[in-house]
Amino acid sequence: MSVVVRRTIPQIIVALVIVLMVVFYFFYINADVSKGFTTADKALSDWAIVITAIAAIVGGIDILRYHVNQIRKREKRQIVFSCVVIVMEIVMVLLACYALYSGIAITTQPNFQWLYTYLYAPADAAMYSILVFYIASASYRTFRARNPPAVLLLIVAIIVMLGNTSLGAMIWEGFLPLRDWIYNVPNTAAFRPITMGIGFGLIILGLRLIIGKETTWMGRRE
Amino acid sequence: MSGKLKALIAFAIFIVLLIVVAVSYYQNLGIISSGRNVAFVLLLILFLAGYSFIGTAKEGKTIPVRKIAAFDAIEEGIARSVELGKPVHFTLGYGPISTVNAPQYLAGLGVLGHVARLCAKYGAPLISTLGVPELIAAEEEIIRDAYYSGGKPELYNVTYNVRYLTDQQFAYASAVQATLHRENVGANIVVGPFWAESLIFMEAGAAIDAFQVAGTARETQIPFFVLAADYAFIGEEIFAAGAMASGDIETLASIRGQDFGKLISWILIVVGLILLPVGIKLAEYLVK
Question: Taking CB atoms and an 8 Å cutoff, what residues of chain B touch A124?
């Protein structure tokens, strides 16, 4: 594939989309032009949705390719999981096709819905709930009074934790207002510069993309 | 086109747009959307500053750029993995690319390129997991390029190196966790937009004693990475990392534009504080 197709055209598309987005956001001109901007903006978003939908198919094929490969290689630790993934992927696709054949929305197909509600959703929720144990273990590792900043972090963490529980209010009523002050004053003061820095980083990244200086996302081969 | 001519054109565009904003504001023409005049001028100033720093670097002048510890630590992590005979893991997030998080995915790809080149240099196997279907091809391309240009084509195996998991949050989180444990990785590099799964990755990495470098521009997840990872990119540093990964002095010089933006914001904050006691609220003027 030529350099023009592999590098130049994607760079031009990216630069053009960024410039268009800036124009759509900042320029008004008059009511008619503004309406045109909104329509064009919506069209770009719709293209993105179409690309995402097609990419999802590529993703499905990629998952299948990986797990078929694992079964072929007879990877002992992976083979059972790979079989489950392949079976579930095929079943879900077949049920979705059957829903389309029946003329109903995929998500309302009873078997599809059952698998989603009673298999996927509980597993998803379980994974989310595991997070609480990770928070506990991370807190244990982090809140050790090794040096002065760590001691400060530990003290603040204790105040915030007590401020969040009824036990804290029972010990001292001042924990709740102190927690709110920590959230609203030092916490906000620390976060604002980070937020502004992210904004500046995005602007300069945008500039690099417009002038074709940011090419790391395309690989380097010429 | 010569560099000076390009700079002149850029400056001319800047002046013309500045005049458009001024005329639109004072004549009430409404060319610029209401409340976005100052923001647009600031955007133009930052673009011009970034561009002029790039131009200065092009002329051969050295632009000092601050070091980012997390960026330098990536090489340490990969070298450590090679010593231990373990693979390197990289992940950049999940979900559709057509959201406000797209720049973070791009930044993540920049870091992936750097990681892949280092893996090729040290002969380390790289596993890159992702939950963004639009980026599968880009990742394959980046990793292949790195291994081929690094003289290690035998290490490139598409089904091993690039693993698309899913675009569903906790399914992706559990799959990444499983990959970390089953492959027993030596270094876990996590750069991109992350949500609740950030801590899951960090704790899974800590459980297998992996060297961890993490970064995100999502404010709510930065504390988790700062506390749980060995090194962390904080906010805008992930965008700077992309420029650093390029190894190009001109691209690197653009980072000074970010710092220039911070200087402007500092000045605005100080001026705002000075004006506040005399009853002038600068913030109100900035959104006119």
Answer: 168-171
Output DSSP code: residue B99: S
Rg (CA), chain B: 22
Which residue do the tokens 């991109």 mark? B192
A81 to chain B: which residues are within 8 Å by CB? Answer: 178
* Chain A neighbors of B109, CB-CB under 8 A: 216-217
Q: Which of B56, B94, B170 to mutate to test the interface with A (most CBs of A within 10 A)?
A: B170
CA dihedral B210, A153, B220, B40 (to 10 degrees): -120
Asked whether this complex has an ipTM greater than 0.90, the answer is yes
What stretches in chain B show pLDDT beneath 50? none
Tens digits of residue pLDDT in B11-32: 899 899 989 888 888 888 889 9
The answer to whether B47 contacts A45, with C-beta atoms less than 8 Å apart, is no
Q: How far apart are alpha carbons B135 and A56 in whole angstroms? A: 11
User: Which residue in B46, B169, B196 is closest to A204 by CB distance?
Assistant: B46
Indicate the Cα dihedral angle A98, A101, A105, A107, nearest 10°.
10
Closest by CA to B114, choosing from B155, B82, B70, B176, is B70
Reported pTM? 0.93
Chain B CB contacts of A220 under 8 Å are 113, 145-146, 149
Separation between Cα atoms, residue B250 and residue B245, nearest integer Å: 12
Residue of A nearest to B171 (CA): A124
The per-residue pLDDT for range B257-275, each reduced to its tens digit, is 999 999 999 999 999 999 9
Query: Sign of dihedral through CA atoms B130, B136, B142, B146?
Result: positive
Is the torsion defined by CA of B98, B99, B104, B105 positive or negative?
negative
* Tokens representing residue A186 in the block: 């030092």
